[in-house]
Fold this sequence. Notes:
By secondary structure, the protein is mainly alpha-helical. It contains nine helices and nine strands.
Amino acid sequence: MSIDSWGQHSRKNGCSPCPWHPFQFIAWFFVLYFSVVYFTTIVPGLPTAWQPAGYVILAVGFIAHTILHIVSSVIDPADDNVKKSRKEGPLPQFDRTKHSHVIENMHCYICEVDVDPESKHCSRCNKCIVNFDHHCLWLNNCVGSKNYRVFIATLGTALIGSLIIIALCIMQISVYYIYKDDVENGADLLQQFQESKNKTGDIFQVLYQDVIDEGWISLVSITGLLALVAAGLLGHLLSFHIYLMCRGLSTYEYIVKQRDAEEKRAREKEIDMEMSDQDPGDTGCVAGKVCMLVLSG
Length: 297
C-alpha cells in the first residue's frame, strides 16, 4: 500500500466524498447503461413469448446487483476500535523516525488505537481495516471481512447479467443477418421481423424510438462488445478471488507472498552472479551469503 494520503481525514465508506474516484462513476454508468439498453431495446426484440421472462429475470438480477453494489460500498469495514474512537478532524501523520511500521504490537500510530491482529491500515481510506483484503477502486471502499461476501456476490450478479446480455445480443445479431432477406422465417426469433408483417417503414426501435436497422444493429453490437469486456474482467476477478478462497489467502497476503518470492529470486540471482565471478579458492564469503539466504527463506 502506498503512503500518499496519510495525514488526511479518515474515509467512512465508498460514499465519502474525500475523494470520489472516477472508477466508481464508471461502474455505475455501465450498470445504468446496460439496464436501459436491455429493457428498452434488447428485450423488445425478443419473441413475444420470451419477453415476460426476459423482463422478470433481469429485473430481479439488476435489483439484486444494485442492492449488493450499494451495500458493499456503504459498509464501513473498519476495525471496531477505530469505529469507537473515530475522530472528526485530520489524523496525525506517520513519523518514520519514531516507528518502522504504522502498526506495531497491534497498535496503529495513525488511528491511535489498538487494533485486531489481522487489521491493516489502508492509505486510501486512512483507517485500519479488519481482515483487510484490498481497496476496491470500483466501489471506492476497502474490502475486508465485514463486506467481503457482499463484494463477491456483487461480482457474481454482475457477471451473470453480463453473460445473459452477451447471449441475447449474439442471438439477435445472428438472427438479423441470417434472416434479414427472409423475414418470414425469422419472425419467430426476432420481434421486429414479426411486426414487419403489419408495419411499413422502420421496424427497429432504440429506446422505444423508431430507427433504421443499421442504428439498431450498431447499438446491439456495441452493447454486446461492452458486455463481453465486462464479463471478461468480472470473470477474471471472480476466478482470482475463488482461487484465493481455496488457498485461504487474502489479496493483500497474496501480493505480499508474491513480493517476497520475487525478492528471494533476486537474492538467489545475485548470489549466482557472485559465485560465477568468485575466485574458486575464496568461497567463505559466498557460503555465508548462501546460508543467510537459506535462513531467510
